[in-house]
Amino acid sequence: MKSKPKKLIMMLVFVLLILLGSCKKEKARTKVSDEFNWKAYEGTEIVVCWPNHVHYNATIDSGVIEEFEELTGIKVEVDLLQYMRMHDKQVLEMSKASGDYDMVSMVVMWKSEYALADLILPLQPMFDQKHLQVPNYDFDDLVPAYVEVTGIAGGDNVYRKGPGSQLYGLPFGAETSIMIYRKDIFEEHNLKVPQTYDEVIEAAKYIKENVPGVAGLTMRGASGHHATHAYLCHASPYGARIFDDNWEPVFDSPESINTLNFMKKMIEYGPPGMTGFTQDEEFAAFLQGNAAMYIDAIVLATPAKDPNKSKVHDKLGFALHPSAKTSGSETGGFGLAIPKNASNPEAAFLFMQYLTMKETERKIVLNGGAPFRMSTLNDPQIQAKYPEFQVLAEQLKYANPDWRPIIPEWGQINAPYLGVAINQVLTGDKSPEKAMADIKKPIRDILVKAGYIK
């Protein structure tokens, strides 16, 4: 008889634990407004084309897609592709009378092409419809530089804000550049963390000459897109531009030559084989501990902190992208858009808002995704978990949405001309002056043919 109270207490404790677990699980779910009709498109199926990329993988793993499906009754199918394969497939589908995709993820350099070819829908008309507006979305909290670089196109400036421009996409997997460095090496050798490009050169030279088995800076250098990306990443702080305000090529300017000379020095002080580095090799050199500095997209921070992927996960420091003539840093990455021929554009727009609303973004970020809202970047609790976010919040003040010309003809200019010429400089096949002079006329001819230069 004495054991009954004890059993009763144990049963009550067990029930209480179940209830507490249920409450915790409920708290983890994204908060949504009960006043909004989330079931308006119940029974619809949407197909999205996404890249196999850190941010999108974090989104999938976070469970927010399943939450959206449960909340709305909309089924989401994800076509996950290697990002360099997405463009051709997306253009093929969006050029049909009725394509397979209701939403696409686009690299920022495709946005003007898609918008000017009338392949994607402007989003403001949908935001203006009250029955489609998710309550408390807070558009102004989205990182302004990311909104411009991933979503603004059309108009007089083609790819930037200005007369005639419209909103065609929202940031999702957008990024800017910062410096990540080996804190242990800098502290052991009493080195100053570089704030300028001259200091980067000094630190890279010292490390290459004094730290066995470790190079100065890891950098992309492979002929084509990757060499161009590296050049643009450093050209922005050096004050170099591809075209002037009248679309005349100016990549042979003194600022551009200074950029290329810096890159040549980094080949000298960098890991072996860097003239053939894509992003994968650039990442690997840092993750394996073979380079002490990295200046490129912040996307490396996630794998760099992962002990399963990084040998230096506990030796990291984060700093602003160094300055030269200016403090500009890259803005790039991915944004979400809705094809004009989408079968279910309203359901896709609802999904787009759900993915980019504050509560969902926070969940994706805590699962390893990239932040794209200022409220998250400036949250002290988030910054404590992700120390690079404090640097990122400051870096975005200097982010340059014009760090590369995002025009439809960029594909004809980027890899075939600039990317080859830059690699020729890095390999020593041509001087910076010769390499840039050789491509000036063919690139100008492209601009003339396209109507930029009269």
Describe the protein.
The chain is of the alpha/beta class and 454 residues long. The chain has two domains: 45-174 and 332-395, Periplasmic binding protein-like II (D-Maltodextrin-Binding Protein, domain 2, 3-Layer(aba) Sandwich); 176-330 and 403-450, Periplasmic binding protein-like II (D-Maltodextrin-Binding Protein, domain 2, 3-Layer(aba) Sandwich). It is 47% helix and 13% strand. The chain has helices at 3-27, 54-62, 64-72, 83-94, 111-116, 124-127, 144-151, 183-188, 197-210, 225-238, 254-269, 279-287, 301-304, 345-356, 358-366, 374-377, 380-385, 388-395, 410-427, 432-450; strands spanning 45-51, 75-81, 103-107, 152-153, 166-167, 170-182, 215-218, 291-297, 316-319, 331-337. Strands 1, 2, 3, 6, 7, 8, 9 and 10 form an eight-stranded mixed sheet that branches. Strands 4-5 form a two-stranded antiparallel sheet. The longest helix has 25 residues, at 3-27. Mean pLDDT is 92; it is low at 12-27.
Name a few traits of the molecule.
454 residues; alpha/beta; D-Maltodextrin-Binding Protein, domain 2; 2 domains; 8-stranded mixed β-sheet; two-stranded antiparallel ribbon; globular
Task: Give the topology, please.
Layout: H1 3-27, E1 45-51, H2 54-62, H3 64-72, E2 75-81, H4 83-94, E3 103-107, H5 111-116, H6 124-127, H7 144-151, E4 152-153, E5 166-167, E6 170-182, H8 183-188, H9 197-210, E7 215-218, H10 225-238, H11 254-269, H12 279-287, E8 291-297, H13 301-304, E9 316-319, E10 331-337, H14 345-356, H15 358-366, H16 374-377, H17 380-385, H18 388-395, H19 410-427, H20 432-450
Parallel strand pairs: 1-2, 1-3, 7-8
Antiparallel strand pairs: 3-10, 4-5, 6-8, 6-9, 6-10
Helix pairs in contact: 9-11, 10-11, 10-19, 11-19, 19-20
